[in-house]
Amino acid sequence: MDETGTRARQADAGDQLLHVVVDAETIQTTVALVDALVDECHLYFDEDGIRIPAMDPATVAAVNLTLGRSAFEAYETEDAHIGVDLSRLGDIVGMADRGQLLSFTLDSETRKLEIRIGELTYALALLDPGTVRSPPEATDVEFEFTGSVVTESGELSRAVKAADMVSNHVTLGIDEERDSFYAEATGDTDDVSLAVPADELVDFSPGDAHSLFSIDYLRAIDRAMPKTPEVNLELGIDIPLAVRYPFADGAGSVEYLVSPRIAAN
Amino acid sequence: MDETGTRARQADAGDQLLHVVVDAETIQTTVALVDALVDECHLYFDEDGIRIPAMDPATVAAVNLTLGRSAFEAYETEDAHIGVDLSRLGDIVGMADRGQLLSFTLDSETRKLEIRIGELTYALALLDPGTVRSPPEATDVEFEFTGSVVTESGELSRAVKAADMVSNHVTLGIDEERDSFYAEATGDTDDVSLAVPADELVDFSPGDAHSLFSIDYLRAIDRAMPKTPEVNLELGIDIPLAVRYPFADGAGSVEYLVSPRIAAN
Amino acid sequence: MDETGTRARQADAGDQLLHVVVDAETIQTTVALVDALVDECHLYFDEDGIRIPAMDPATVAAVNLTLGRSAFEAYETEDAHIGVDLSRLGDIVGMADRGQLLSFTLDSETRKLEIRIGELTYALALLDPGTVRSPPEATDVEFEFTGSVVTESGELSRAVKAADMVSNHVTLGIDEERDSFYAEATGDTDDVSLAVPADELVDFSPGDAHSLFSIDYLRAIDRAMPKTPEVNLELGIDIPLAVRYPFADGAGSVEYLVSPRIAAN
User: Is C3-131 assigned to CATH 3.70.10.10?
Assistant: First the structure.
């Protein structure tokens, strides 16, 4: 099989709206990042690359993922918008070995997405986008973030795991006085607190901020994270948390928005 | 412990019908290959080596494994025929570390198989061969294979995994016109197809062939396969599939015969 | 974060009875060794280091672990005695990465143990020592060990795993005539026996010994063992078994005492 893994198939596809080739690790990461929140999603293709916006069933967390065309080995598409069973897609792309290339071709006659790995073709039936939950248009302008932090992902990961041991909720915030980013969770007997001072942060735009979040969503986001050295957080007072980081050598970008919980009492 | 791991035991064994020594990886692979189909089996020892014929309880698939005496560090036996609890044998040999040698001695008085790993001896009670299912004499002359293929095991493995995602059955065949080996499975919404052209096959004797198989057996056979680069398949029209490949650096050979399903409608 | 990981916290702690810093692997091993028998335990701190004595709920097995101050990166403490939920402590220290340092500070005001990993602080509520089971004062003088063995841990480990396949009990002993250390277990159909002759033992003080033990405890002790090359056993006739070995490059020492079962009939 040659590098693009497509060969004779191109001639057979009829009207091709879409034909892209990408390496296994990139597509596996892409699927995992969205799968953290949803089982099915919209995929938008245009000349710049792909975009995947999604919102979890409880409408607490949203994700917006973009993967620029530079991440692809081949990228030929007209604008396209499809609905996908993400769990099924994850099982399929999970079969590829490290370093293998996968090709995706949309067969406009059958309305199936033909996924090719080696000499294997999996024709995945698509979902009618009208039936897949659509997140509201996500624009950051709506949220008045007061502070921004870039921290080592390991610190945040450990804070979320530890908070999960004592509580269902965690407060994330910025302490302007102490010039630090913090996370706090209180349990019946135990407490967890993270306090990362400015000189330990990769980047820091301090501003008073604190909001309470359900830990389940932060754990899901943390579990899906690839070996990312740093993660960017934007916070405010009782407003959503934005979690952003690049992947696929910078060609991809993921942003999660997690709504805060209204603190009881 | 010296390399053979047997020392004083040999003097104690009484009438030895059988005494062989083999490395952990070889015996662990041997057991796994047969365990894919059955929980108990016959073992035949003669001057050439061992032979293990078995048939699964549903009499759909059969395996015939041979391991030549060259695979053994020591091989002293008269002709012998024993019945073994394969699950138990697997647990025992699984305790040996990579590179360790195991010695097997048949104690004719106790009718137990003494398995030695290091300074540990496990005396395994044997099964009366008369109570263990015996496969019919398997001779390939019965089947009119029309085609033969040697393909990279990764391609077949992925095809079986993918087919398992959409259906209980998969059709394997040779397309004489397109000069290729193929696998196809159809589900409610999704389809899977593998098409390996002649120039991608390690070896190819084309001839029209197609049969439908239950995926469960192919998955079991695939899971038991060690890191084998290539696998030989023999097919025909609505006749069993033969899957063959060597192991233990060529000293071992395994052949599975999987009966076809009669296609409904 | 500097090496000790403590910085500003020291100033905040109020009356510090205790402040120690230790690497992840050492504390994770320490917790695992005691967790093999109990869910909660006493920790004693003095100028020499820490001591953890514990007895399992069924009062069959006891452990006495010591970890000298040389195992710590920093060790500042007055004599202290605290009660700890060991399962919870295991989850906490399990979050540290290989090579990371953890600091433990006892906050005398809150009576919580503040555990610091990176910039994360977990305040663990302690248990009232009066409510935690206390093992009787363990002194070896009470037991008349007749023999002592130092064997490769792999041999003992395999013997325990194998015995567990055939029986709930295993006899450990020393055969003075054959000058060997042995283990034997008898099942309904299968038998297991280990026989390590003197020249295969790292050290050997022979003396007639044999006792019957419940395998569950030996399995738990075996599972908790780090990559220890050798283990020291002391045995007698129908008296407890002592299992001892060093860890943390010799700074730590663990001893288990497992009571024998009175053989039925």
Answer: yes
